[in-house]
Fold these 4 entries.
Entry 1:
Amino acid sequence: MDSELSDSFLLQQLENLAARLEIDVRYESLADDEFTIHSGGCKVLDRTLILIDRNRPLPERARLLAVELSRYDLEEVYLLPRVREFIQASSREKNLPRR
């Protein structure tokens, strides 16, 4: 995590970005004995939703949210430079298609 931004501030900035993109972010317990459930994005009734396991540490929740947000065109969206860098760094972790 970037030492210049606290984990909680970074997560708040990412949540604000999701809200501006009209993406719902929910933190749920994804633990299940019968199924393997992973954090990630999906569509529910024409709404975009990102589900993140609330049991994950704060830095990992921020990284997971950044990975999902990196799938969107953010070129014209104003972001703090460190937040944009974090999203871009997170997107390089996986070769994700754009939405």
Entry 2:
Amino acid sequence: MATDLTVSVADSPGGLASVGEALGAAGINIEGLLGIGLEGRGIIHVCVQDGAAARTALEGAGLTVDGEDDAILGPPVEGADQPGTMGPMARQVADAGINVRAVYLGTNSRVVMVTDDNAKLMDLMANM
């Protein structure tokens, strides 16, 4: 299972670069990425396959890892570049009673999701 790490950086030029440099130097591929500026700091969600190694690399570079969650890194989404794809998929997740805590796009049109019930989401995805 993939891992979603939440990293806090200064809300200034270079924060994102520091994350990329730390993971790249450790040979860790970024499967998905979301970054936002919020209340004077940068919040970066990064999806990786080896959460422990990524945490070690990030903290070794002096970065703060605020959170670590199991994440679902789905297969490529057919029609991801077409209007109207997300709504029906998100409706199926909602109708199954799954609360999405984080969602962002990954490489190759994949979706990264952190939910309150990843096992239920995986079952749902198997039947989509």
Entry 3:
Amino acid sequence: MTSDHMRLRDRVHEPRRRAPCGRDEDRQTGRVNSLFTGCASFWLAAALIAAVARAIEPFAHGIWLVAYLFLVGFLAQVLLARGQATVLAAAPADADAPPIGAQAALWNAGVVAVPLGVLVGARVFVVLGSVALLTALAAFWQASRPRRLESGAASGGAGLGYLALMVFMAASVLVGTALAWDTPWL
């Protein structure tokens, strides 16, 4: 065999490697986007199913459920992932990876618990869901803080926008939890 044939044979038998992604942040931003996009897609489908179910047979808190699943389950999750990916992309190459799995688990546990509490009329689930959402937001903030400071993204529009998004969402969770005490379904 010629050396060209041997190289070709070796290439065929070698396991396929993924294309290089560049920096670790490129892989991290891809991981952020894929995990949160998958979860957000699930909640978008759930919102659509709830909307169809409510159109067929109206039920208590149906409109609220559709809005909550869309805004908190889908849109907020997409925006948080986008913000975190932006901060990760601007971070130094040696920055630690954020706890993406914990962030997603906490956020999605909150997305489940709050509607469960509303639909079964149990405040404890609303509170537990709110605590999970706030803890997730704290994890997003904590993970982005050193990156924003090191990269200078905090002074940029994207970094400030991401910080404003987290503050707005935390305030919304607190307002929603307070409103749960004054609604007739409790």
Entry 4:
Amino acid sequence: MKITNTSEPLRPDRVSAPNDSRVSTTRGSEPVAETERVQLSDLGSRLAQLENQFSGSDFDVKKVEEIRNAIAEGRFKVNADAVADKLLSSVSDLLGKKS
């Protein structure tokens, strides 16, 4: 039995169409089952909403560069209490509980 690399994408010239009468093909496309339906979960639409919401987010490039340099030079200090408070607040917001 030959085992091939599973991370290699399938090439169209190596994929055979199933012998199923329910499958129709359109010129230049993969086989499509006429009776099959695909329904995406609400997670996909929610992800699209979040991407749109945060795609235009502004940030301070100078501040990011200062923090990057401080990390690289070992000068950056993390305020663990502030991180913990903001993390708990974020989790509360995500769970729908306002603190």
